[in-house]
Design brief:
About 35% of the residues lie in helices and about 15% in strands. The protein is α/β, with parallel strands linked by helices. The chain has a 7-stranded mixed sheet with strand order 2-8-7-6-5-3-4, sandwiched between helices. A hairpin with a 6-residue loop joins β9 (about 285) and β10. α2 (about 60-70) runs parallel beside α8 and α9 runs parallel beside α11. The longest helix is centred in the last third of the chain and has 24 residues, at about 260-280. The chain is globular and about 60 Å long. The protein starts with about 25 loop residues before the first strand and ends with a helix.
Amino acid sequence: MSNFLTEKYTKLAPYVPGEQPKDKKYIKLNTNESPFPPSPLAVKLANDEAKNLMLYSDPDSRDLIKEIALYYGVNTNQVIVTNGSDEVLNFAFMAYCDSKTPAIFADITYGFYKVFADVNNLPFKEIPLKQDFTIDVNDYIKEDGTVFIANPNAPTGIKLQLTEIEKLLQSNPNRIVVIDEAYADFSGESMVNLVDKYDNLLVTQTFSKSRSMAGARLGFGIANAKIIEDLNKIRYSTNPYNVNRMTASAGIGAIKDKEYFASNVEKIIKAREYTQKELTNLGFSLTDSKANFVFTKTEKIDGETLYLKLKEKGVLVRHFSKPRIKDYIRVTVGSIEEMQTFIEKVKEILEK
C-alpha cells in the first residue's frame, strides 16, 4: 500500500474471489462456475462480432436488452445490462444508500455486499441468519434502509419463499428491496414477474452461472422504468461502454439458445441431487440448497482440513473462516463425472 492512498480506503478489506491456482490441473468446484461451455450460438455471435472491436460498443446495449426483455416478458426500459451482476449491485448501493439510508443484509451472505458498502463509505447493518441459516423477513421489516437479499442465498443455497419477499416489499413501499438472483435458475423461481406489481423491487441476475459465461462478465437488472433510469444515470456517470461488443453478442446467443440453457440447468440440478444424496449417505449434514452448489459439513473432519485434503487430491472447494460456518465447505456442482470424482476423494479422505 502506498503513502498516496486516501485515508478513506486504508482500512478497506476487498472482496476475496475464489482461488484460481495454476500449479496443476484441478477439478474446480470452488467458484460456482458452470461445468459446461457457453452455448454454441453464443460463441458464434461473439466470434462474428470480434471483427468490429475497433468500434465502441452500443452504450445502451439495445439488441441485448431487447432479447432479455422478450425472454422475461418486460419492457426494454425495465432492463439494464452491466459488467457482471456485481456492477448493477454496486449501482444499487450507490443509488439507494446514503448516510440516512443504510444498507441492510444478512451476516452470512454474498461477501461483496459489505465491500460495496465500505468502498462507497455507506453505513450498513448485518442481520444474523437464524440458527438453521434461514432468513426471517420480520427481522428486515422492522429495519429502515435498503435491503439486499441473495435468493437463493450464498453460501448456504437456501431459498426464501417469494411470498415472504412480497411481505417485505409490502411492509414499506418507500424503500428499495434488491433481490440478487444469481442462482435463481437452479431454484425454479424468480421475482422478475413481480416488478410491475412492486415499484420498490429490483431484481438482479447474471449470465455467469446457468448460462456458462462467467468469463464474459455479463449481468442485468430488471425493475420499473424509473429505477432503471436511476441506475443508468450512475452507469453513464462511471462507464457508459460497460458491456463490450463480444460479450453483448454472446449474451444474445445465450438468451436465444433456450434448449441448451434448459438442458444444462437440468443436468446441474440432477448432479446436485446426486451429490446431496451421496454426502447424506456418508453422514454429512447439508443445507437445503437450491443453487448450483451444496453447503455441507461432517463431524468426522473439520471444514478447513477437508478443504485442504481435497485440494491435495486435485479437487478445489470453498472454505470460509467465519466462525458460524467454518465447519462447512461449499462445493460447486459440476458435471456428474466431476461430482462422482469428488465423492470418491471424500471417501478416500474419510477412510484414512
